[in-house]
Amino acid sequence: MLAFILAPFYSFVNVFLARWVLRWTGACHRVFGTRAFRVLFLAVYSFAALTPLTGFLVQSPPALRRLLKQVSNYWLGWMLYLLLAVLAVEALLACLRRIQRRDFAQMQRVRQVQGGAALALVCAVCLYGMANARTLRVTEYAVTLEGAGEDMTVALLADLHLGYSTDPAYIERAAQAVNDMQPDLIVVAGDIFDNEYEAVPEPDRIAAALASMHSTYGAYACWGNHDLSEPILAGFTWDTEDEEKNDPQMAGFLRRAGINLLEDEKVTLKNGVQLVGRKDPSRDRKLGDERLSPAEWAGLLEPEKPAFVIDHQPKELEALAEAGFDLDLSGHTHGGQVFPSNLIMGFLWENPCGMVQIKDMFSVVTSGLGVWGPDMRVGTASEVVKISVHFGG
């Protein structure tokens, strides 16, 4: 329901931005002050601004719904940076008025220059963010764990968010990047879907790409908070009591992709490593389920063997370390995904992205493979992670 609560604010922001752009264009040239231009601009702006709602309401034809959803995902990012740029310009203009006391004509010229520079910067940042979201990187970490064991390579993926923003060719490139690592173990740490299985383009092609990933001991996954069926508006979801949230198509997709799902389950790999996949607390709450606590897992682990845990959200890190886990593999945060949210993630998570050591346990959080909401990345990277695990530390 947060989407409805934010609707008045969203409407106010868009009215403010549309008026600001019209004022700026009108100050640049008289052609932009004509009725014809204003009507055309408002028509295009309204179409883009309303796509979060129209993409939610329009169910068919599927091609139109997909178009509206894709435009909506791009628009959310463009609106964010347009708002930041406009606020910066207005703040600078206010300072100039106070300091230099320029006349109206001078201020109009200043507005033209600053507004033009701001809009050019918005275009540059957004186009970069759109391209950067499709630029796949491989991030490498090395950890040394206590005890005996065979050195191994772990490939970590998370937050694919398969849906309207997904390009099957991009998933195929990610699968090839994993194979290039020659991993011993493949881990998919949740948010494989983006709440709507029907939104996945060419699901058989994507499943085949994921099935093409090879490893010594197999591929394992846990669910994330978006891996269930819910109505979604502008990236926000809400509960509906009359709808089946646990979509069996999602589990079927994982089977076709050759990925073993662990829901509060433990497997022991042939090299002796204990691998645990935890349920997601947000998903459990919506399904009326519960997951085992770190203390309960402590009683189920064999202390003499290494223990890895797949946990979508990087929570309870200290408790998991005390339970006896050696390596925690997570996603969820996206590293903030877009500036400036990436600057505050460190205040929200003990490990917002990257690798940290918590007592004797290493926590590795990936910024993820896909995107949520705005279809862009600014200040963060789309990645698959290669972890070289050494024993005997």
Task: Set down the secondary structure blueprint.
Blueprint: H1 2-28, H2 35-57, H3 62-100, H4 104-133, E1 136-145, E2 152-157, H5 168-181, E3 185-189, H6 203-211, E4 219-222, E5 232-233, E6 236-237, H7 248-256, E7 259-261, E8 265-268, E9 274-277, H8 281-287, H9 294-298, E10 307-310, H10 317-323, E11 327-330, H11 345-348, E12 354-358, E13 361-365, E14 382-391
Parallel strand pairs: 1-14, 2-3, 3-4, 4-7, 9-10, 10-11, 11-13
Antiparallel strand pairs: 2-14, 5-6, 8-9, 12-13
Helix pairs in contact: 1-3, 1-4, 2-3, 3-4, 5-6
Uncertain spans = none
Note the main sheet: 6 strands, mixed
pLDDT averaged residue by residue: 91
User: How are the strands ordered across the major sheet?
Assistant: 1-14-2-3-4-7
Count of beta strands: 14
Number of domains: 2
What percentage of amino acids are in beta strands?
A: 15-25%
CATH C-level label of the largest domain = Alpha Beta
What's the CATH topology label of the largest domain? Purple Acid Phosphatase, chain A, domain 2
What structural class results from the helix and strand content? alpha/beta
Architecture of the largest domain, CATH level 2? Answer: 4-Layer Sandwich
**Percent in helix:** 40-55%
| Radius of gyration, CA atoms, in whole angstroms | 24 Å
The number of helical runs is 11
**Morphology:** elongated
N- to C-terminal distance: 49 Å
Q: What is the succession of H and E elements?
A: HHHHEEHEHEEEHEEEHHEHEHEEE
